[in-house]
Specification:
The complex is a heterodimer of chains A (905) and B (99). Helix content of chain A is 51%, strand content 14%. Chain A is an alpha+beta fold. In chain A, strand 8 (268-271) and strand 9 form a beta hairpin. Chain A starts with 8 loop residues before the first helix and ends with a helix. Residues 69-90 of chain A have low confidence and may be disordered. Chain B has a 3-stranded antiparallel sheet. The longest helix of chain B has 26 residues, at 69-94. The chains are: A alpha+beta (905), B mainly alpha (99). The interface between A and B is medium-sized, with 26 and 18 residues.
Chain lengths: 905, 99
Amino acid sequence: MKSLPDRRLIWRVLRRWLPGGFRERRAEAVLETHVALAGGPERARGAVFWIGVARDVVATGIQLRLDGIGGRVGDGTARPDAKRGRRSGAMSGWEALRQSVFMAARSLRRTPLFAAAVVLILALGISSNVTMFRVLDRLLLSPPEQIRSPDEVKRIYLYGHSPFSGDVTHSASLSYPDYRGLAGVASFDGVAGYGTRSLTLWVDGAGETVSAEFATASYFDVLGVRAAAGRFYSAEEDAIGSPVPTAVLGWSYWQRRFSGDRGVIGRELEIGRTTYTVVGVAPRGFTGVGISPIDVWLPIHVASAAENGSTAWVDAHGWLMMAAVARVSGPEPRAVEEATVVARGVREAGRRADPDLRVVLSPLIHALGPNPSRESQVARMLAVLTVLVLLITCANVGNLYLARVLARRRELAVQTALGVSRGQLFAQLLAEVAIVALAAGAFAWWLGTAAAGALFGVLLPDAALPTANGPRVLVLTVVLALITALLTGVLPALRATRVSVMDAMGRGTATRRTLLVRRVLLAFQAALSVLLLVGAGLFIRSLVRAESIDFGLDVSALTLDIEIEGGITFGEGLSDEVLRLLPIVRQSALVENAAATSVAPFSGWWGVGVSSPDGEELEMGASGPFLFGVTGDYFVALGLPILQGRPLTDDDTRPGASPVAVVNERLAGLLWPGRDAIGRCLVNEREQAAPVCTTVVGVARDYRPSITGDDSPGIYYVSPTHPALGSTAANTIIVRAREGVAPITIRDFVRSAAPHLRMVTVAPLSDRFAAGLRAWRMGAALLTATGILALIIAAAGLYSMLAFEVLQRRRELGIRAALGASSSRLVRSTIAASSTAVLAGVLLGLVGSLASGSAIESLLFRVSANDPAVYAGVCAVLLGVGVLAGALPARNVTRTDPAISLREE
Amino acid sequence: MLAALADRPRYGYELVERIAELTNGRKRVRPGNLYRVLERLEARGLAEETRSALEKGEDERRRYFRATAAGVRAAESELAMYSGVLRRAGGLRERPADG
């Protein structure tokens, strides 16, 4: 006989499947027998042969392990085998684990649908948590990327009274003298100033709006970043008068626009109003101290001077505002003390002395500072809620597993009777849940990774996608999966160990207790669903309220902004261009009316004090008075009604026309309370030397200044030729387009009609406060998604619970039906208990929502946390879903044929 | 299995063939399962491995098994039980169905 092919790799792999002792004693004999059966070594080859061997080895391996656990079933001597039991008890931990996992996998393979459903439910629960973690990580946990020891870098705030409103604030806005003073504080290792704005960047004749950060040369040094290519700019290059303005590109912009070409270094780019030479590229993932992507960094002095068209403006120092960060490696209190002394010194030198002024240092993560964004507050709340979703998921899957344990109680009872220890049963059930949870975790991780980009686009459109949190997310996913497995599996696994023979016959009390546990879990799910849905309802209502808010003017009106040669978008030179363009726009068939204005609504205020010889004294403050230059048709184009008198017309713009003004209700009320405003005289502070009367010819209605601000400030409107406006008379055109004309159509028309304009942008006024709606949109989107998810999961839970109960009570129902019980009575008795559980859960959820309402009240917009409509809606939805989930099993009850159900038993 | 081992010691391949023969070709035991059952029989003292059958010219790697005295008795009692069952079942079949 030739030697057997026992050295072949395939056999060496296969035989490992056989348990240790058996492998040692019998594996070779098994192979030899296969070879003999195949007709000798020559024929014992090929796929068919090896598949046969593999099938045999796998089946035998399984059987041997079952023997190890299940005693000696089938040999006529089935009984608890004490000796065997002890031996398996003494198995190594690894062997025991392998066996549990093996049994669990086998049990899952037998019920692939159940396994798939559980994986899906858990994956949804886990992925909602992983998703939320990504958002939270970006907003609250991770400092911006690429910064060396970010803990040492602090944002600088000035605590004190606002010179404008007198309110106590934490201001991040420092003047240049503040900055210069703080830069000299000895306890700071370095101080850097910065500010972001949008500019137009021109490459090969095509302009594009980029996010630019003006930063002091110290910025990169303080943050401890190294250039990915080239270098950063130096302090000399950030000095006004520097011969060559320099720029540093952001990594992703460099990749996107220049395909990562290093040849871009040394290239000249036109950005905003001047031309910069690229000297370097920032490292990948670096977004400065914020979380929004930055396309280009420019030296703050050079760029500010260029953008404002005046070096004198920057030299005047008081005007250049910036935020600042400091690196503090020493004791923080001392640094704060020193910095406060410096800041007070700076302010006392100016006219805005504030005895309460002090410097506050806060972490680099903006949301942890004194002025957290609304988004980060919403995110915190959502984090709590997604944990609720995970709990719902666990309750649900736990419930499913309890049902599974009940359904398998005979099998489990037999295993117990055959001497399988409780520990083994427990481990086996837990292993089963753990396998499923890990599979769900893998699925959730994949889902989250694939969807992260889209998710950030929706939730945090301004934030850069983190590049370095992959491992953290992975670890979190695995941890979540294991926690889920524990939360989900312990109860069913414990239950599995208590299965008795009585149970197996369906007469044990434990079965009833398990049903009770399942009902409590069901109630818990319903309660959590209510909590989430109420939250979703409140946020949706906030969003709807905020979106449908009546500003008092037509926010669908368009703003048309232009950029002319030299990158000029404001002030001198622009006014004439805008006024030249206005008649062209008005003549277009696309346009109903158009007007020019110095400042578009919601785009800023320009305060110019006024007085009236026969009016009250006015202090300049947050409530104005603010000045707007407007041409004729302004009020019509904006849909802003004139309540009294007349609007301004183009005739008022003609040279030589006597100066007239329209005031709004607020200003009229402030200057001439209770009196008629028409015909009165206004004198603005710029003309105090040689007062000229501007006659009030009309009163315009107030409009809402912002989403959250209620009171309109005092406003007066004058024509663009009014001397108070100076050179900034007209900057923007307000356009009311004809029905169905898109903004882009108007833009294209203007481009073709005035090709010399460098850039034309047309956007609805509502865009100006879209960012303000983001927090509610994020809250509404996430809460609705999690709420619906929770509802689906809870409904599936209710359905499975009822269906299971109907199945379990088939026999009883059959007998009762045979004895003449009506189907409605049977339905009632079947679903009564579960329905009561759901109702109790809903009540509990409502009470919980009412109790926790105050926690989210501040995040809502004009909606009470106890909004009755939301509560009623949620109740209706839940009860509707409850009825639907119950209908199918209930129908099955009525269809129970006593004969069939009894025969099955 | 015991019946297949009752008349003389056999090794794996012979056992598979013998069982097939005894069951009229209906039962072909898989080798893995065969050795698993042999182990169990051995553990209960119903079968044992033997080297006495090793004769000149036989492959040394062949493992021969035979039924122990207890094994033969067990096989006989099981067979007796089954043949009794078969006899009575046959009798039942011949009785007219009376509902």
